[in-house]
Amino acid sequence: MLKLILLSVLGVMGLALPLTLILTAKEKPKIPGVLLGAAFYLTANLFLNVFKNAWSLNLDTPISTVFYLITAVLTWTLTAALFFRRSRPASLGRVSLIYGGYALINTFVVTMAGTSPLIQYGLLEVSGQTAQLPAASAAILSAAYASLGPLELVLALIELILVFLILAQLFRRMLTEKTVKRLSEFGLGLFLLMMIQYGKWGMLVSFIAYGMELAGLLALSKRKELKS
Question: How would you label 173-212 residue by residue, b for 16+ Cβ within 10 Å and e otherwise?
Fold first, then answer.
């Protein structure tokens, strides 16, 4: 039951973070900014899926993983250039709406692909109704559900919050900066983030790396505020 509760909290938190950002933003109207962020995510994801299928990108080996990460970062950065290269520096409220729309769609995709099936399986397991699932699906979901412990889910929740905050800072720098290098900074920050996520560094090293990247981005934002 504890595992099911933590899984549900993880799913709810993934939606609560971007919704809070959107609802508390002072920018009005809200819908255009949210739709812009959602369109950015969907377009970049579409391009990346095309490249994945065309080039058979995978994460099987360290070399293939690095190639995938480079392709992903270039795809997201070039799509950002397509959407935001000519845009004027945005207010923090508009940044919140754009990033909120991006994060909301991203959460929906992740929830539909991963969290939601596990929650449904957990509910069936608690009620003793897993027999109604097809044997193949039940075996896969059972193995995935059994591999998750309370500690792993708590750490996943912390990781979700850290990644959300890091991406928020990356979007803020990309959308509020006037310099031409803002897109390259966005790409570099995204590459570092994905290296942490996809690299097999161990939980302690990964969390230290998340903290260092977030601290660095916050320091850059603070320095910009002091200069202005």
Answer: bbbbbeeeebbebbbebbbbbbbbeeeeeeeeebbebbee
